[in-house]
Amino acid sequence: xxxxxxxxxxxxxxxxxxxxxxxxxxxxxxxxxxxxxxxxxxxxxxxxxxxxxxxxxxxxxxxxxxxxxxxxxxxxxxxxxxxxxxxxxxxxxxxxxxxxxxxxxxxxxxxxxxxxxxxxxxxxxxxxxxxxxxxxxxxxxxxxxxxxxxxxxxxxxxxxxxxxxxxxxxxxxxxxxxxxxxxxxxxxxxxxxxxxxxxxxxxxxxxxxxxxxxxxxxxxxxxxxxxxxxxxxxxxxxxxxxxxxxxxxxxxxxxxxxxxxxxxxxxxxxxxxxxxxxxxxxxxxxxxxxxxxxxxxxxxxxxxxxxxxxxxxxxxxxxxxxxxxxxxxxxxxxxxxxxxxxxxxxxxxxxxxxxxxxxxxxxxxxxxxxxxxxxxxxxxxxxxxxxxxxxxxxxxxxxxxxxxxxxxxxxxxxxxxxxxxxxxxxxxxxxxxxxxxxxxxxxxxxxxxxxxxxxxxxxxxxxxxxxxxxxxxxxxxxxxxxxxxxxxxxxxxxxxxxxxxxxxxxxxxxxxxxxxxxxxxxxxxxxxxxxxxxxxxxxxxxxxxxxxxxxxxxxxxxxxxxxxxxxxxxxxxxxxxxxxxxxx
Amino acid sequence: xxxxxxxxxxxxxxxxxxxxxxxxxxxxxxxxxxxxxxxxxxxxxxxxxxxxxxxxxxxxxxxxxxxxxxxxxxxxxxxxxxxxxxxxxxxxxxxxxxxxxxxxxxxxxxxxxxxxxxxxxxxx
Lengths: 584, 124
Description:
CATH architecture of chain A: Up-down Bundle
Strand content of chain A: under 5%
Structural class of chain B: mainly alpha
Largest sheet of chain B: none
Order of helices and strands of chain B: HHEHH
Number of strands of chain B: 1
Helix content of chain B: 55-70%
Mean pLDDT of chain A: 87
Number of domains of chain B: 2
Oligomer: heterodimer
Largest sheet of chain A: none
Mean pLDDT of chain B: 77
Structural class of chain A: mainly alpha
Number of helices of chain B: 4
CATH superfamily of chain A: Cytochrome c oxidase-like, subunit I domain
Distance between the termini of chain A: 39 Å
Strand content of chain B: under 5%
């Protein structure tokens, strides 16, 4: 059916359309597509994680022969590709954003539901094509997830596996572009009345900025893939020096995509963490506008720093890219300040999502600080292509994507399914992950500083790298246990459901105003929207959020539960304190 | 915001060109500038011609938005078919033209299907 949807639907709309497997294939409902995205990308996450375990096991001892050199090359390539192209991005802007953004803005669906379904199927088929490279005779792609130019030519890496990788990236690239268009149109045109742009939840803001970054970055990647395919098959010489081409052009094109891609991966998770910190501190986001502008400036700067990945090529303008890279630390610092300001004097509840969000702050700081080291060309020349870089980007990306992503999973799982996850298992999983994270990646800094190159399958017993590699492998097993506990948690919540209720966390934003899971076309009722916390205002009329920027009135800093503050003899001013926090 | 994208990358593009005299990066920054400026200008052009919408009014009540929001299609098999056809056409770049034939047949069917579905608007 084509539905003409109205804002106020008096009677519950019924579930339409087919059920069972056919429902998952034919649905254009953003919630079903969001779930498909989330499940598919999580499967890719598990596969890529198993590849990482295999690699760490190989590196546990010098001269190990668990996997061959060639298989090792395939493993690190596919580990990177699956994690970056098929898990981290799609899980955020395909899974969580698809499900949550329309709910947060009070919309009945995404703006283009069938385009949304198409992007999912492009993504899923692309992912399957990429992973089936392992089934071809030459094996999967083995030129690294960056596929640098001379190495990715048809002479150096022949075979169907690399070609399938190229096709898969092009397909998922289109999928990402379509999703980006869809998110932009949804946020611009389907907001609920009164939900002005500066009342959007930070998660939605970050997804909007991410969508624009996708539109900047992914077309460059997809066209670079087309050029690479032409070089491999129809004899063009765009990236081959022998035919008059320029190999380093590949690096320019790739990193023009690649660095924004890092922020395409990071910004959604920053958004999750911001929302989680605010809800579990029972306060509005501190410095809301600062947060939005910090997100925008991170996005803008990230598009002009691509060549800091290419310092050692000797062909780039070192001062320009170094200064731009340093500048990114400023908005990121603003974000950190605001995150801590959000928690400051809040009444904190340390449920699992909050633990993961606070854990994110700690681990991301480590990754961020080493990023500042790498932005300096002299230091980068020293550690380029060593394990130092591996440790840096795993701390940044694991820190954001896994800690932030798991915070999001634990936070929104009740909304996705109507069930609760178990708190005890979640907390055990968190501590395993936090300890495992540092045990895995901190030794890699030392390895890098002692000269261990990245992407090597073995090393000599004389190199002195054995101990730190062992420690790192031990940490990887701790991470494995942590994810395994999380899978048990999923299983338990599935077998013995604990109903979640509509609003288990006392949430602030509109997605908690509807039922869990939400009905077809999402809302029967929407509270009046007067601030960036409409549902909180409705549930706690005694301490409403004053909109930080009412037109024509004086600004009130977006600090603590402001109205309660202003009335004499009413509370201590740190927001809602009636203690009705529902422990699940 | 999109206008800001355009202006920011115009500035960065100019500085970069002046400092580096390097072609590929400058062209990419120029493209990014246009990517912000074109839709941003379009939105600006329209925003001056539209009535203010309730979602941009800070004092709006939920009832102000009552009425038809838009038409949302129901379940449809065609995105799936179109996705599979795109994948087959992609795979033809690897394994030869036979899968492209398959892909184009499916794509044609899917395009016809989507158009008929949109025109009819009834049960899918």
